Structure formats: C-alpha cells, structure tokens
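MODEL INPUT / OUTPUT PAIR
PAIR INDEX: 1
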Amino acid sequence: MTPADLTRTVLHTVRCAVEADELPAVVPERVSVRVPPRPGCGDYATNVALRVAQETGRPAHEVAEVLRRRLARRPGIAHVEIAGPGFLNITLASDAGAGIVRDLLGGDGGESGGLHGEPLPLSPAPALVARLGSDAARWALLCPPGLDRDLLLVQREANPLFRVRYAHARTHALVRNAHDLGFDAAPGDVDEASAAPLLAALGDHSRVSSTRAPERLARHLERVADAFLRWQAGCPTLPRGDEKPSVVHRARLALAEATGKVLADGLNQLGITAPVHL
C-alpha cells in the first residue's frame, strides 16, 4: 500500500462513516498521511479525526475511535492507534512494503512500476552549463534560493545532487556485491523502523513524478536518497563473514534495488546522468 493508496483509504473510511451517520460531518476533499517523526508510532499518521471533529462538534477522541475501528478492518492495515488529542497512527500489514518494492522492480521503465522516464524540459543557460557542466547546471535550476551553486561541483554531503547520485551508485554497488556472493534480490518483509521513511518515499514516487514538476521531483529524489543512506547505514544488506544469505538479506537487497530504479528514473526525467560508479 503506497501513501497515495492509504490516503484514498482514509478518505473512503471517512466517507463511509458519514454515510452511515456515525459522523454527521462534511467529508473533506482531501486528507493527508505522513510518516511519524518518531519511531514506534506506526508507519503513517493522519490528523483527519481532528479536522472532522471541527465539523461535528464532537470530541476528537470520539471521532478518532469511530475512524480507528473502521480503518483497522481495511485490507493492508495491521492496526490503528489513537495518539495525543486525536491523531491516528496507522501500521500497515507486514507485506505492504514488499508490495511497493515488488511493483517498482516489476516496472519496465514505462508506465508500469510507477516509473516514467520521459525527460522534462529544462534549459539552463549556456554560461551556466560552461561553469557547472550539464548535469549540475540542470540541478542548479531546481535549487532552493540562496544555495551556492558552486557547491554542486564538490563531492560532499552538503551537495544535494552528489547525495542523490551517490545513493544511486551505492545501490548498484550492493547489487554487484550480492551477485558476487551468489544471491539475488527477492522482495519481502523489511520490518526495521528505519525502512519506513524510505518505503514511504518510494511509494510516493509515481504520484510525484506524474506531476511533471521538476523542483518537486528534485526534492523528492533528495528525500529518497537521504532515507536510503540513513537506512542502509544501520542495516547490513549483505551477509558478513561466513554468514549465509537469508530471506532478510534478499529483501533488503530488493529494497536497495528498487531505490536505485527510482533514483535513476527521477534523474533521467531531469535529464541528469545516473552513474553506477561514483
């Protein structure tokens, strides 16, 4: 279940509760789900109960309980908890992340798998290309105001383009090393809490890339790369020493491979090369 899928599920749940007269409220046009800022609070959180409570005049906790019961019965959701004044913390079923990875790895670079690949029209000035090179010049057009464009020429963590391309190259290194060890990726349950932000970002790729908004896509790629690098730093993808490859190693490798496909797809849309060695 992707973030977009979950958003539709939450909105449908509110609509069903209103139609059943459990919540005498106007169904909101949109709802939002976000990755919680702290581990242990589920995979996603939504403030929809607080918004609906303003319409009903009922306590937010009562509204949250109505929605909690309904959401917990939806396919793909393991359980739902109420937190604070009425936030809903949602934990997805264990195979939800595997489904996101499987869909991405099943894509062929076209419309399937959430991958698009068609370059967006970006035309940096010739002087900027001469100064930075084609790739950095394209990224420079998408940088937030105030960023020193010369930073895009150095290979360091402060350079967002370097982080994105480094993360992409790192995924390929993991796949190569796994092949050398004689095992391949197989989508499965990756239940580390640190994987949740990465899975959420990957699940968001189709929606973001379909907007055809270059700046938004660039920030999305930064989010994917940063989430991957944080996750991979704490979770060994490859066996260590005499350790044999396990189901978990194969699932982690599949997550890394899916990340590489998303980063390559996004960079390609921006007309920027995605080197496999960096």
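PAIR INDEX: 2
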Amino acid sequence: MRRGTWATDPLITCPDRLEVVRAADLEEIGVPRRTISRRCAPGGPWRALLPGIVLLGNGVPTDEQRGRAALLHGRTDAVLTGTYALRRHGLEKLPGEEEVHVLIPASRDITDVGFVHVERTTRLPRPHLRGGLPVAPVPRAVIDSARRLTSEDEVQTMMAEAVQRRFCTPEMLADELDRGRTTGTAMPRRALTPLLAGAKSVAEADAWRLWRRSGLPAGRWNVPIYDVHGRYIATPDFWCDELALAWEIDSYRYHTSFDDYRATVARNARYVAAGIVVLQTLPSRLRTEPGKVADELQAAFRTAQARPRPNVLLKRVA
C-alpha cells in the first residue's frame, strides 16, 4: 500500500469501527511505526491503551473499549471473566474493581499488563456474547471474581444477587467451586453455605448464621405455607415447621410505597389468623444487635412452643 493511503483504509474509516486496534494491524495497512508513536504521544489524536494496542481516539476509554483491548492482549480464544463479565451480564451489586480479568489457554505465555489481569486456565469456558464481547458464564465469572476478593461481604453480596435474580443457582456456584482450582476458595465457600441452605440475600445469610448460633431447631428458608384448606398464607424468610414459627427479615427498602406496606400488613394478618407466631427483624439489627435478636428468637421459640401447633402445611392440599 502506498504511503499515506492508510488514512482511507476501512480499519480507520469504517463508521462502526470499534476504535481499538493492534498496532501490528495498523502497520499492516501501511501506517509507519513512527507515525503510530507520534499519534499516541501526549496531545496526539490516538492513545496507547496497552503495549501494542491503540485507541483511535484520545479520550478516556469506555468500559467496552477496555474490554476489547484486554481481549486483543489475550489473543485468540480469550474470554472475559470476573467482575467485568458480571457487569456485562447485567449484575449491579459488584465491587468497584478497575481491572479487566481475562482467561486465556494455559499454553499461552501472556502476562498481566496495565489494567488487564491475565489468568491461564485449562478450563476455558464456552463464552456468552454480551454486547459482542465473549464473557464467561455467570457461575464461572462469580467464582473467578470471588477468589480474588478480600471482603466476605462483597463476595456474599455478589453471590446473593446472582442467585436472587436467577442468573444461576447456588448449586451451579458450588459445582464451579468444586471444578476449579482450590486457591482462594475458602471465603467463597463460607459465603455460599447459607445460599445452599435456601437463603437468597445478604440479610438472610446473616439471619442463617445467627439462627445456627442460637441452638434452635433447624428450619427452612423461603418455603410457601398453606392452611388446611390449601389457601396460601405466606412465604416466610425462615420457617420452623416443628413449631409453626415464622421469621421475617423486613427491610425499609421493601416498604417504600403504600402497596408494599399494605402487602406486609396483609401478610401479617394471615399469620395471625392462622395462629402462626411471627418475628419481624430489621436486617441492620442482625449485625448491630445480634445478641438482642437472638434473645427475641428464643422468646418467640418459647411462645410458639407453649401453644398447640396450628394446622398449617408446607404443601398445598388439593
């Protein structure tokens, strides 16, 4: 290609170009190396995102452009994972991680650079395309992220959102933990345990841990309860079937409208009508006042134990 004709090449001029290219591809269409360097210098029209990877613009790179740069760095078959991949899937309650985590085949000798964390793996997942980018399935991305985090609250929050919003099941996360490498899995396993027991949120996970410490009989999480005529009563956060005792972790967040408040009042009325003992606890108290909440649980247990168990069921009777 003659000198200067590169300026009209589709790599440069295509209206839907992604603006992240390899420097080697620019050289291939005739852009001299010194021109690339000059254009990527401070104040120039281009920007070097990573060694050998160029942004055909000089602004702050977008999230998508950073992801594409990471994929170019990882080369063929690279897959985005971790927090970056989870954002592409649509999860929201994620750590504010700036790194882009990319998986590459174990045989490839590529290392971390700039904002890219490279992980070599013999278990390269089949990617999902999100916005045209190949990203790991949610269970793999959650575990890949969790293994690198240091805050159990962040791990718990991320896992709970993935389960609560039905991106995956707790069993899928457990399978991914068992199949992957063991490094960094102790904390994710602790965070996953209450979700496997049926908890579906961080508050319910906190409640599960408090109940376990209480020494009270085991129960079940998020199971529907019916009366003897098959009429639906409620789906308590925690249910002790032995005593017909319900425990609701009621947050202000879910009572911000009149309809939410009305639904809670109606639920409590059904509990009372069915003879069920119900304890309501604010999520914040599970951490700020665990001792007092434990005392309230014990008191509710004694109250439930002192009266005949009402005829309520876990299964609807036809």
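PAIR 2 NOTE: The chain has a mean pLDDT of 91.
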